[in-house]
Amino acid sequence: MLGSLRVRVGAAVAGGAVLVCAVFAVATYLIARQVLTAQRQEAVLRQAYLDARFLRSELGTAGTSPADALDSLDPQGATAVLLQQDGRWYSSSFTLDADAVPASLRPPAPLPSTAYLPTRVAGELSLVVAVPVPAVGATVYEVAPLEELQGTLRVLATLLTAGTLAAGVLGALLGHWLGRRALRPLEPMTATAAAITAGDLGRRFPATADPALTGIVGASNAMVETLQRRIERDARFAADVSHELRSPLTTLAASIELLQARNDGPAERRRQALDLATTELGRFRRLLEGLLELARADADPRDAVADGRVVDLGDLVRHVLRESGRPAGLLDAPAGPLPVRGDKLRLARMTANLLDNADRHGGGTTAVSLRRADGAVALTVDDEGPGVAPADRERVFERFATAGGHRASSGGTGLGLALVAETVAAHHGTVACAEAPGGGARFVVTLPLAAP
Length: 452
Prior knowledge:
Layout: H1 2-59, H2 66-71, E1 80-85, E2 88-91, E3 115-121, E4 124-133, E5 138-145, H3 147-183, H4 186-197, H5 211-261, H6 267-299, H7 304-307, E6 309-312, H8 313-323, E7 331-332, E8 339-342, H9 344-361, E9 365-373, E10 376-383, H10 416-426, E11 430-435, E12 441-448
Parallel strand pairs: 7-9
Antiparallel strand pairs: 1-2, 1-5, 3-4, 4-5, 6-8, 9-10, 10-12, 11-12
């Protein structure tokens, strides 16, 4: 990829150099041609006037014939000088005659003024100038070659073309050098990206002093860091899932084997085995529901605030308490609505998980309160359990983690508080674990109040 970039940079610089030089060369050639052509025409016209004045003087002298006048003329810089007088033509050249003059410069009537025309004479580009001399009834024609001028222009065009091509070659070399120099900091980044692609997620893009690459390097390293954490988290999650599924499946298998082995045994033993299987099935069902909820949250991490509707958190908590069979007196809430924006179903499940966590691990819910504070509403759930050690108060929100570092063993799945944390994050809130005033654990969820 870097090689193709260097080629493109070199081609771009070379193309730019050729374009600039080509424009300069064309402009230089056109200006030079215009200036040199104008100078040549001016010199030929000046010489034609001098020759016409000389011939008028010679023809005005008695006894001087047109042929003698032309013989005494020295046509400087001209191929030939022709003279038309009284319908007859005279030439200073042995090879050129009246046919060398364009028909437009020799009309039947005398020309009213000086005229000139570039044309080919004897195969060579020439400038023919016609100067009328009314004093002697004649017209003088000056035939001046332009091949020298054309040769000069050809040399100039060749030099400009060669210069343009040379500029293109130098531009390509310069572009290649600039491309290598500009893309040199990307080479270690390319090697690092290849290593990361091969699976070495511990590699990071090297720091650079180039301000144009600093942001890219920082963002890329942050992306790889996030990817590495996500992969490690998924790996731990898969290991945790396999561990959590093994326990209820093993218990279920043992219970079924016991029922099969003691099909004709005491009813009390069969009932105990059936109760154990039922308990493990319930735990298994809650575990699968939690896993499905986490999978949905991971697969579709939508912004619940942006996509949700306004929900009265006070009414929602009262509804959850009522549906779970808990007394309404547990809730201490201020009068008036407590509007939050989000997903009503997820908020209800979050509240239910907090209450279930208090029942399973905290000896039961002792108090539920709602309070307004600084543009937010705080939902607090207290229990009467042993509480959570300060070292574990952040870890309890991890998946499959419970206080004390033990996995769920009291019918829990270790996913309830993880789902709470996922829901709170999706609603732009915070969740924390602390010590309740009367002992036990206190979980506080803070959500932003909805704008009126």
